Amino acid sequence: MESVFRNRRATALMLTPALLVYTIVMIVPILWSVTYTFQSGNAVSGFEFVGLDNWIEFFGDSTAHDALWFTLKYAVVMTTLQVAAGYGLALLYIFFLQNKSSLVRATIFFPVILPTVAVALMFSRMFEAAPTVGPVNTIFMWMGGDLTDFLGTPSYAFWVVILMDVWRSMGFYAVLLYAGLVEIPTDVMESAKIDGASSWRLVRSIVFPLSLPVLLSAVIFSINGTLKVFDSIVALTNGGPGSATTPLTLYMFRTSFAYGQYGYGSTIAFVLTILCLLATVFVFRSMRKDVTK
Amino acid sequence: MSSATLGDAPARRSKKPLRMRVRRLPGWIGVGLLLLTVVYPMFWILMGSFKTQPEFLSEPFWALPQQVNLDNYISAFVEGGLATYIKNSVLAVFPSLGLILVFGTAAAYALQILIWKGRSVILVMFLAGIMIPTQMILLPLFNVYYQAGITNSIWPLIITYTAIGMPLTVFMLATFMRQLPQEVFEAATLDGANVYRIFWSVTVPLVRNAIFTVALVQFFFLWNDLLIALTFVTKADLRTIQVGLLNFTGQYGAVDYGPLFAGISVTVFGTLALYIFLNKKVMAGMTQGAVKG
Known about the structure:
By secondary structure, chain A is mainly α. Chain A is 75% helix and 3% strand.
C-alpha cells in the first residue's frame, strides 16, 4: 500500500499551487520586509540604504513607545478579560444551563461573526455625547452622572475599546472553552460530588486543572489576536483622541501609507512580529510546566 | 467518545420542585440581562434605520420610529453605494475562497497522506504563517502590485486573500486527515484505486465536514477583513463592504444618521440571516476544531 502513496508526481502536483502562492505572497514578502528595515523610501520614490537609522529612530520615537505601550496594555487587559469572560460563560453553560444552553450559546456567539466595522459604528453611536445623546450617556445621567464624552476622553476611550472587544469576542472564547470542558469525564465529577465537594471546590480542584490545556490554547490564541488589534480601533476611535488608543499596527499603517515611510513602517511591523513570537513562546513554556506538573 | 462526558444531558427530565426553581430564578435573570446586552444594541440599530434625522436629534434613544419607511435604505444603497460595496466584496471573497479550498485541500493531502521526505518541515512552515502579523507583508506586496500596475483592480485582494487563507486551511485539514482510520486507505489501495482516486473519492468525502468548517471560518474572516482591503483598494468604486462602511460616517461635519443605521443594519442582519441558516454547522465546527487545534 505504501508504494501508492510514495508518488512524487502526485505530491508535486498537489502541493505546488498552495506552496507557490504561500511562498511568493507570504514568505518572500516577510523576508523582503526585513530588508526594508535597513532602507528608507517607498514604492513611488524608490529606496535607499540607511543602515540602522530606522532602528535608532524607533528607540528614540516617543510616539512609537506610546504605541508599543498601548499594544502591550491592550493585549494583557484583553487577554485576561476575554479568557475570563469566556471561561465564566463556559461554566455557566455547563453547570447552570446544562442541556438548555444551545440558544444562549448561539446568541452570545453571534457578535463574533459580525463585521467589526459595523459593531464599531454601533458602539460609537451608543457612547455618543453630541450632537445626539447615546443610550449609554442617557442611562449614565439617570444614575446621576454627567454627560461624558467617552470617546473624546483618553482614559475612557481605552475602556470603551476594551468593552466593545470583550462584547464581540466573549462568545468565541466561551464556545472554545466549553468544547474543552465537555470533555471532562462525568464519573470524576460524580465521585467528587459523592465525596461532598462543594461546587466551588469542584471547579477549583477538578474542572480548572483538567481544563488547563484548552485554557492554554485560548490564551495563546488571544494574545496573538490582541497584539494584532487593528479593525476595531480604526473603526471605533481611529487611534484617538490624540494618539491615546493607537496600537503598533495602526502606527505602522500610518507611517507607511500616510507618510510614505516604508522602511520605518517595516521596522514597526518587525517589532510586532517579534512581540507575537515572544509572547507565544513565553506563554507556551510557562504554562506547559503547569499543565504537566 | 463512548464514555459519558459533562456535555451529555443529564437524564433527569422529571419536574423539579417549585422551591428549586425559585432558587434558580436570580441565575435566569442574570442570563436574561446578558442576552439583552447582546440583542438590544442590534434592535436599537434596526429601529434607528427607520427613523428620520429630526427623530434622531430630538427624541430619546428608546423612542420607536413613527413609521416604518425604507427611505434610509434607499439612500444607503443609492447615495451610499452600498450595492457596489457588496458587489466588490462578493467579487473578492468568493474566488479567493474557492482557491483557498482547492489548493488547501490538495496540499493537506500531499502533506498528511502522501509519504515523502521533508513533509513535516513544510507543514511547520505553513503553521508558522498563522502567527505572522499581516502588517509584515503589506509593504512589499503593495510595492509589487504598484509596479505591476494592478492596484486599481480587485486582483490584489484575491491574490493576498488566497495566500493568507493558506496556513490555517492546510493546518486544519491536515489535522482532520490525520484522524482518518488507516484501514480506509488500505481498503482503497486493495481495490486498486490510484493516488488521485483515493484523494477524490475517499479522502475528500471523508473530510467534507471539515472542509465546510474551514470554508465558513475563512468566509467570515475574508468578508470582515478591513486591513488588506483598506491597503490595496485605492479607488472609491472598488471598496469592499467594510471599507465602504467605514467611509459611511460623515467625514465632513454632521452625521447622516438614518442611512448610517440602515447601512449597519444591512451588514448586521445580512450576517444574522446567514448565521441562523448555518448556526448548527458553525457551532459544531467550533467545538470540533477547538479541541484539536
